[in-house]
Amino acid sequence: MSAAVLPEAHDLPSATTPAAHAVPRHLRPTPLWWRDATAAVGWALVLFVVALWVAGGGISDFTSVGESLTNVGRLTGLVASVLILIQVLLMARIPILEQAWGQDELARVHRLVGNTSFNLMVAHIVLTVLGYSAGTDLGVIGTFVDETLHAPGMLLALAGTVALVMVVVTSVKKARRRLRYESWHLLHLYAYLGAGLALPHQLWTGADFRSSTVATVFWWGLYAAALASVIVYRVALPLIRSRRHRLVVSHVRAESPTVTSVVVTGRHLDRLPVRAGQFFQWRFLDGEGSSRANPYSISAAPDGRTLRITAEAVGDSSSRLATLRPGTPVLVEGPYGRLHAGVRTRERSVLIGAGIGITPLRALLEELPAGPDATVVIYRVGRQSDIVLADELLSLARAKGARVVAVVGHRRTDRESWLPADSAHLGEAEALLRIVPDIAYRDVFVCGNPAWMEHVITAAKDAGVPAESIHHERFSY
Pfam families under this entry (predicted)? Predict the structure, then answer.
């Protein structure tokens, strides 16, 4: 590990955004204020739904226990409905949302909105049934059965609820760990089915959906926007983009016994709005498994002629990359993610990767500006034999004036850490400061195992790196 001297105050890199280079318009990052704007729109939709409930007499319908329960059930159902539609929009791969939030934040918001909408949906069912049963002699179970069998659209709504329950159950961490990514992804698509099956019930029996022209236009408009977003961005755009660029496998190279690189070529790839560090959802149309999309980052900066991915064999889909043949057609969704040079807030950078997580950082190093020690790459591996793309990293480092530090060794067992066991005498942040003394004045890009990344992010913050200068991408599900 080479020593470095902490620069004097007047030599510190500027904390302002780096000077803009000549970046084509289609590659410029979405400004962060779009994140705040879209979040404000989401909150406005929820508040507008509450306002519609108030305007429809929601505040005054508390004359009896049964009416009170039913009335609160109406409100929870309305808010659950709008949150489910917001969830659909979050899953629709709308480019401005993807670029403004990034996959990490978008996934976190998606989980939060999903859990909230599911809990409110359950509350809606329970409160409504209790409210209706208070005015009948059927009892709670009898009322539920009667409403399900005789109220318009209720059987469809029940089927939609079952679909959503399945999505929620399989999204629990313990359940996710038992499922292959491909299986989990397929099950997760039932969220669309759940939202769609609930629509007839809401339009036929939901008085709040038909209480006024404003309410009717709002709900129909929101459903139409959600449906259009899914069709345009999950189906049409990937098909159009793949057809326009005619992507095919050019060649396949084994980087190690378990790591494979796939190079894809096509037409007019210089017009594809992708930057080093971003990822696509890839489908290789070679027969079995071609219907499943998998996220892989590009492992080399786009050159306008080819795209390259490098993946480790950890499942069926990643293992079959080694068997791909030249000429295999490729469909892609994306690009996605904010792990690229356009999000930098400082002039200098630190790239910290573990295992196969080094691949998007290798591409990012290629795009970052050159300069003496302008970029430091920290590569965490368990063994020397686990290092991939070593020659490329060293060659790029020499060309860029960058520094590469390999942190090798098995993980510690005495505590959770991003460091190996032989660094037990070092603190988490202390180790970073030893490698990069001026890390507090740099952007930090992190990619690797999600649990390991959390330790790196915490250590970087403890070392003085502000949260807005830490950029990361998780590929967990």
Answer: Ferric_reduct, NAD_binding_1
- C-alpha closest to that of 387 among 423, 350, 358: 358
| Any domain includes 285 | yes
Q: Can you give the CATH number for the domain in which 372 is found?
A: 3.40.50.80
Dihedral, CA of residue 173, residue 174, residue 180 and residue 182, to nearest 10: -40
Q: How many domains does the chain contain in total?
A: 3
Q: What is the 3-state secondary structure (H, E, C) of the chain?
A: CCCCCCCCHHHCCCCCCCCCCCCCHHHCCCCCHHHHHHHHHHHHHHHHHHHHHHHCCCCCCCCCHHHHHHHHHHHHHHHHHHHHHHHHHHHCCCHHHHHHHHHHHHHHHHHHHHHHHHHHHHHHHHHHHHHHHCCCCCHHHHHHHHHHHHCCCHHHHHHHHHHHHHHHHHHCHHHHHHCCHHHHHHHHCHHHHHHHHHHHHHHHHCHHHCCCHHHHHHHHHHHHHHHHHHHHHHHHHHHHHHHHHCCEEEEEEECCCCEEEEEEECCCHHHCCCCCCCEEEEEECCCCCCCCCEEEEECCCCCCCEEEEEEECCCHHHHHHHHCCCCCEEEEEEEECCCCHHHCCCCCEEEEEEHHHHHHHHHHHHHCCCCCCCEEEEEEECCHHHCCCHHHHHHHHHHHCCEEEEEECCECCCCCCCCEHHHCCCCHHHHHHHHCCCHHHCEEEEECCHHHHHHHHHHHHHCCCCHHHEEEECCCC
Q: Indicate the residue among 336, 361, 395 that finishes a domain.
A: 336
Residues 83 and 203 occupy one common structural domain: yes
> How much is the average pLDDT of 387-392?
90
Type of residue found at 248: V
pLDDT digits (tens, 9 = 90+) for 447-473: 998 889 999 999 999 999 999 899 987
Q: How many CA atoms lie within 13 A of 336 on its CB side?
A: 30
Residue 377 contacts residue 404 (beta carbons within 8 Å): yes
d(CA 354, CA 445): 12
Q: Is the pTM of this model over 0.70?
A: yes
Same domain, residue pair 76 and 223: yes
Q: Tens digit of pLDDT for each residue in 277-310?
A: 999 999 999 877 677 788 899 999 999 999 999 9
C-alpha 190/C-alpha 429 separation (Å) is 43
> How confident is the model over 402-456, as pLDDT tens digits?
999 999 988 877 778 898 888 878 888 999 999 999 999 999 999 998 889 999 9
Which CATH number does the domain housing residue 277 bear? 2.40.30.10
Contacts of 47 (CB under 8 A, 6+ apart): none
The encoded tokens of residue 189 equal 């698509």
